[in-house]
Design a protein that fits this description.
The chain is an all-alpha fold. 68% of the residues lie in helices and 0% in strands. It has a single domain (17-223), classed as AhpD-like. Pfam families: CMD.
């Protein structure tokens, strides 16, 4: 398979920061370019899917990087992504916030029990959306604790979630690869979800190489620190230089 030719600017990852880095530290900049853009240049994932994953990483409720999101969104559209595909990615980036309940509700049940506090479980409340998720084979047992604590709220959330799972804009394989990215991202690092989605991705036909490419994209996301900081530093240095008196002016003081 011929590897795609991707220039340093022909991607959603880099903004003006790479040019600044080339000027200030050319040797390190060359190493950074080779490493950061490998997922784009390897051809393991399609260019469109790489950029959609970039949209997900930057839009994720654990990240919310506006500039990175805009770059990847433009690049995804350039690569042929549709409005529906990008909308589904944004939905996935939003609903991952349920991990707050996946993490906290079992702890609440355990600590309440340890403290001798009884918690009423409303098991007779109707939960049609939860039932639909179970029927679709998409129920996660990590959701059982907060279903027991608040079935009405859980069902309201699952009515939102089932709309994501039943959306056909992306394939099951693509959804699972995207989910791996947002769960494994260094701003989230949610191990149970990462493992679950890796297992589901393999079942959906993803290869280990594709999953590794997703994890590499999570690492490339780290360079958003440079995209944020280098233009800011360059601007501050330029401002200070403009405010300093010239040598001739300083000598006349």
């Amino acid at each position: 398979m011929e590897k795609p030719s991707v220039s340093a600017t022909d991607n959603g990852l880099w903004g003006p920061a790479l040019d600044i880095l080339r000027e200030w530290d050319p040797s390190w900049a060359r190493s950074v370019e080779v490493q950061s853009l490998e997922p784009w240049r390897s051809g393991v994932l399609s260019r469109k899917l790489v950029e959609l994953i970039g949209v997900g990483l930057n839009a994720a409720c654990t990240n919310l990087n506006r500039e990175g999101l805009q770059r990847h969104m433009r690049a995804a559209l350039d690569a042929g992504a549709t409005r529906g595909e990008i909308l589904l990615v944004l939905k996935c980036a939003a609903v991952m916030a349920v991990h707050s309940c996946s993490l906290g509700s079992p702890l609440l049940l355990e600590e309440a029990k340890a403290a001798g506090i009884a918690i009423e479980h409303a098991t007779d409340a109707p939960t049609p959306a939860c039932d639909g998720m179970k029927a679709a084979g998409q129920w996660n047992v990590a959701w059982d604790p907060f279903l027991a604590l608040d079935p009405a709220w859980t069902d309201a959330f699952m009515a939102v979630g089932i709309g994501v799972y039943t959306d056909s804009s992306l394939t099951a394989r693509e959804i699972e690869l995207l989910s791996i990215a947002v769960d494994a991202s260094f701003t989230h690092m949610y191990a149970p979800g990462t493992r679950r989605h890796i297992a589901h991705a393999l079942k959906a036909g993803a290869t280990p190489a594709e999953i590794m490419a997703v994890l590499k994209l999570c690492v490339s996301q780290g360079y958003q620190a440079l995209n944020l900081g280098l233009p800011m530093l360059a601007e501050e240095l330029a401002r200070r230089a403009a405010e300093e008196p010239s040598p001739a002016a300083a000598a006349s003081l």
